[in-house]
Design brief:
Layout: E1 15-21, E2 26-34, E3 40-41, E4 44-47, H1 52-72, E5 78-85, H2 94-105, E6 111-112, H3 121-127, H4 150-169, E7 178-182, H5 186-197, E8 201-205, H6 209-219, E9 222-223, E10 236-239, H7 248-253, E11 258-259, H8 272-278, E12 282-283, H9 286-289, H10 292-305, H11 312-319, H12 322-336, H13 340-351
Parallel strand pairs: 3-5, 3-6, 4-5, 7-8, 7-10, 8-9, 10-11, 11-12
Antiparallel strand pairs: 1-2, 2-5
Helix pairs in contact: 1-13, 2-3, 4-5, 4-10, 4-12, 10-11, 12-13
Bound molecules: nicotinamide-adenine-dinucleotide (NAD).
Length: about 350
């Protein structure tokens, strides 16, 4: 493997830990970008990378993203990310998950893990047999926080969309506001349901035709083909599917006043935030508006660590701070002429002591 400090994505990461366990076949990279605010927290990705260098890049890039996201969510957590380099047939055994748990435990709490792409709740339960530095575990129900972060992510995005509408369209009511939702899975579906309750007009698109048709029926929403959602004439475009959807071509064709959704890394390149700003389209930085899930995961972990149980009300109370954070970003952006994504990055860097 290449020297990680020569990688373009290396950003003074505090730790890059390479794990090899021959017996179980585990090969993993655990990157901790910053522990300035607390333990480096971020999920574990289980993925087959034909070139392991791409796994290293993901760990570096995603752990830095978690530092920014956790800081902007007001959490006492730093940023980290683990990547398990799966073999071609993506063999995932109990032994491999145990060895990964041992590796996390060996870092003595500098890194806290949870689910990410390719890792299920059941996998995290297996990891939790070997380390307590885990979150995103199932909850028994009632008012206890934890479990699937999707609904919490949706709630934060819904509040963020309302804040964007208030800021840009100068109205507190969502009645009749037209929102185009790209991706109606766990996050997008939840956002659409919450908006429908407020009387928003919805247009939905998903590559899973049956699922989107059922949701549109339930909510009285319109449907367009996946290829048409980005150019739909609407008030708010809410991307909740893929990253890198906002590039020169797509931004030029947008027919919206606001982009506010949960998909990670929506800007294809960093300068695309400025391109949106120049077009007068209000952008909600993705890692600020989609922090509801990590707020739930972190609150669950911190309470368990301290021998307490966090409630859903505790989590929602923190998620309800997302709109004010977005408003501060937009006001700073408009006052200083920097795009909202650049303002958010600058604020995050200051919070983690790298301003
Ligand atoms: P999901 O898999 O449940 O839903 C994604 C949906 O997008 C699926 O229904 C899929 O069919 C659809 N989709 C894929 N390609 C599409 C396309 N080209 N056009 C339209 N629809 C398409 O995933 P999710 O958990 O809802 O996550 C959605 C996004 O939000 C991802 O970018 C994810 O990284 C991000 N995110 C999720 C969470 C969370 O708590 N789940 C938290 C933060 C960010």
């Amino acid at each position: 493997m290449t020297a990680f400090w020569t990688e373009p994505d290396f950003d003074d990461h505090e730790m890059v830990h390479v794990v090899r366990d021959r017996k179980s076949g585990l090969m993993a990279i655990i990157a901790v970008h910053s522990t300035h605010l607390g333990p480096g927290a971020g999920g574990t990705r289980f993925w087959h990378y034909p070139d392991p260098k791409d796994g290293l890049r993901d760990a570096l890039r995603l752990s830095r993203g978690m530092s920014y996201k956790n800081a902007m969510a007001g959490l006492p957590m730093g940023g980290g990310k683990a990547v398990i380099l799966a073999d071609e047939s993506r063999t995932k055994t109990p032994e491999l998950l145990s060895a990964f748990g041992d590796a996390v435990e060996g870092l003595n709490g500098r890194y806290v893990t949870a689910e990410d792409v390719g890792i299920s709740e059941a996998d995290m339960v297996a990891v939790s047999q070997r380390t307590s530095h885990v979150s995103g575990l199932p909850v028994s129900g009632g008012n206890a926080a934890g479990g699937d972060p999707g609904p919490f992510t949706s709630y934060g995005i819904y509040l963020g969309i309302k804040a964007a509408v208030q800021h840009k369209l100068r109205t507190d009511s969502m009645a009749g506001v037209h929102v185009a939702v790209q991706g109606t899975g766990s996050v997008g579906g939840g956002v659409a349901r919450l908006l429908a309750e407020d009387g928003a007009r919805l247009t939905l698109a998903d590559i899973h035709a049956d699922g989107v048709a059922a949701l549109a029926d339930e909510l009285g929403a319109a449907i367009v083909a996946p290829d048409d959602i980005l150019t739909t004439h609407c008030d708010v475009l809410s991307p909740n599917a893929l990253g890198a959807i906002l590039d020169d071509e797509s931004i030029a064709a947008l027919n919206t006043q606001i982009v506010a959704g949960g998909a990670n890394n929506q800007l294809a390149r960093t300068h695309h935030g400025q391109v949106l700003f120049d077009r007068g389209i209000l952008y909600a930085p993705d890692y600020v508006i989609n922090a509801g899930g990590i707020i739930s995961v972190a609150t669950e972990y911190l309470a368990r660590r301290d021998g307490n149980v966090a409630t859903i009300d505790d989590v929602n109370g923190l998620i309800e701070q997302i709109p004010d954070r977005l408003a501060t970003i937009w006001q700073t952006s408009e006052a200083g002429g920097a795009s909202p994504d650049v303002v958010a990055d600058t604020m995050a860097q200051e919070l983690i002591g790298r301003g």
